Structures are given as structure tokens and as C-alpha cells.
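Supplementary notes (optional reading)

For those who missed the lab, this is the record we used. Protein: Heavy metal translocating P-type ATPase. Length: 468 residues.
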Amino acid sequence: MTKRPGDTVVGGSIVRGGALTVRISRVGDDTALAGVMRLVSEAQASRSPAQLLADRAAAILFYVALGAALVTLVVWALLRPEDPAFVLERVVTVLVIACPHALGLAIPLVVQLTTAIGARRGILVRSREALETARSVDVVLFDKTGTLTEGRPVLRGIAVAPGADEADALGLAAAVERRSEHPLARAIEAAALERKVRVPRSSGFRALEGRGAEATIDGRVVAVAGPRVATERGILLDPELVHASRELGADGATLVHVLDGDRVVAVLALGDAVRPESADAVAGLHRAGMRVAMLTGDAHRVADAVAARLGIDEVNAEVLPGQKADVVARLQSAGAKVAMVGDGVNDAPALARADVGIAIGAGTDVAIASAGVVLASDDPRAVLDTVALSRAAYRKMQQNLAWATGYNVLGIPLAAGVLAGVGFVMPPAVGAAVMSVSTIVVALNAQLLRARFAQSGGHFWPPRRRQR
């Protein structure tokens, strides 16, 4: 981004070339970073944390067990007042069989296994609630740059004027950009190196402020600059180049002219490379029953081109850093549960605001601190793993809780002596054994999650479509 005298710069910005003298005008709570952190805090405070399923079940079981024991005590005290030992035995058996070992393992064991499985797949869980919520996400909102794209420009295409040679034009552009530190210059140099074109020597390098650069090559002044330079110099493009430029720019690429003296000999199309895995990630999320949205600070033309290529449902372009959390809030106000996927400081407020914040790849410390799930890789398909892991873990939690609940629904009445009239009375020792068996069943069922992971094969496992 070009800056001129008097412009505002953000602390931590990198100067790609030349020297810069800045005056510090804001410190402490007035800095841009402090403002981002305030947004993060506000977003975090606006979220009302849901009570974990295990806590709810444990509270219910406590009252059920206590109530069952009291009812057993009262009933048998009235029926057999002459046999206090029998009454005490029934109460003890109820309390033993209602011991929450199975319920105590039902959730924590699944959580521990899920955390271990996720770590093996590069999914680092910072918040249990975030992972649990991921199963019911309606919209996955991706930041574009560095998440769906690689965050670095590449040469997408080149068109040359009649009589010009493509390799020679690219070599001239690389020779000019050799001394530049601009990301577009690095992309041109990389393309020349990859295509093994001859790059001539250059001298007299000069940066064209905010427009490009030029240098002398074999006595000729060659410039690599945006279309505005040709317009300022009154240079007209050949009709063939005009038509080719429209085609090159149709997908949102940035167009750069190569000027050899007073003629535009080539037009280079440069753009941020879309990750090859991004299309698979979007398609997989669609198959899992979720909408996919994207937000970016780029122009609508660039954003729409990326969205069309990947099949994204909704595009939010030209979004300022402070407005990203507002996009999340707007989706939530429409009744959607939102997972935000990003990697930068500017994504932190949106990550905190979302129902599930996912920091992807080598994200910034602020982004990681704001996310509930951190992905170790840059591969956006890892979001699919997160959803699949969440849904599989939730199913295991439901199964374990159903078993623990069913066991107590059946076991507590038997322990209380409801079948005493037909001669069946459960001794406390049998109640303890049954309680132990229920614990083993819960543990084995949780281990099936690990077995599924071992048998899934490949690196990614498709999440099942959520039942609505």
C-alpha cells in the first residue's frame, strides 16, 4: 500500500523499500492495535456462553439420585418399620447404583479423545464450547487473503503486442523489477525464473511513486507500471492488447503494463493465487449442509471473481477491518450460527464475535487468542475436519448420556426394590457391579471414536450432513 507524506501508518507496518521517518501520534489505548483489542473484548463480552451438556446432566442426576434415595427411605420406612437394616440397604443400593461414574466419564472421556484426535490432524482446541458448537454451524465465513488464497501475488497471464515476444517482454519486466521489493515485483521475478527466460542487465532503477518502476536496459528506458502511467504519457495500446487486457482482467487480476520506450509491449495479469484446496473445502462444506461466505477488503470485482471460481454463496467485499465483526453480527441477526475462519490481526474481532472462531495456519497471536479452534495448517479443508470431529464427538456424547440415563432409569427403581413383591431384591454388591459395567460400556463406546479415526483413511473425513 502506497503512503505519502502526511498519511497515517499503523505500528508494525513493514517498509518494502527506501527509508521512512514517522511521528508517533497515538500511544497506549489510542493505538490501532488497542482498538482491535477493544473490539475483541466487546465481541467476547457479547457472547453468552452455553452451559455444557455434561454439567446439565450431572446436576439432573444429583437431584434424581437424592430424590430417589429419599423416596426409597420414606416408602420402605413406612412399609417395613420393623426392619431398619433392609431400609438402609435399599437406600445404600440406590446411592451406589446412581453413582455418577458412567456419567462422569461420558463427556470428559470423549473430550479427551477428541482433543487427541484433533491434535493429530492439526486441530488445536482452545475452547470445548467452540468445538461443540461447530456441529451446528449454518454459515462458514472465510477471510479471503491468506485463507482461501495464498496471500501472495502470482503471474496469471501475459499478453504481448503484435511483433513482441512473450519471453522477451517478461525478461524486460523482471530486469526492471529486480531491485524492487514490491510483492508484484517478486511475482514477476518468480515467473521469469520459473519459465527460465533470459533476464538482461538493468541500470538506473527508479521507483515511480505509487505507479511502478523503470530502469535502463541496453540504452532503452523500460517501465513496469499500472495503466495510469501509459495514460499520463499519452501512450495508446494496440487494439489487440486492449482486447487481451479486458480478458486478462475479467477474473479480477491486477494489470501491469510493460513499456519499452513509448510503446506498451506487454500486459501482465497478476493476482493472489487461490489455494488449490479451497474449492474442495467449499464443496465439502456445501455437502455437509452449510452455506459458505467470504469477506475481504478487496474490490468487488476481485472478490466476485474468486467467489465464482470457488462456488461461494455470499460475498462481502471492500470490508474495513473494523467492519468484519459487523458482518458476523449481521449473519447472526438473521438467525445463523457462524464459524469465522481467518488468520490476521484484522480478523480477531470477527473471530471473537462468531459462534466458532477458527484461526487458520500461521495466524497472528491476536487471531489465535481470539479463536476457539486453531488449525496448524494453511489448508482450508481442515475446517471440514473440525466440523466432522465436532459432529462425531457430539454423537458419542449423546450415546454415552443415553446409556448413562437409561441405566439409571432402569437401575434406580430396581435398586429401590420395586420388584421386592415378586422376590427380587438387588444387593448393594450387585448394584456396585452393575455400576462398574456401565462405566466400562461408556469407556468402550468412547474408544470407538478413536477406531473411526484409525479406519477413516486419507487425511480428510467428510462430515455427515446435519439433520435439521
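If you only remember one thing from this example: The chain has two domains: 1-137+337-468, 152-274.
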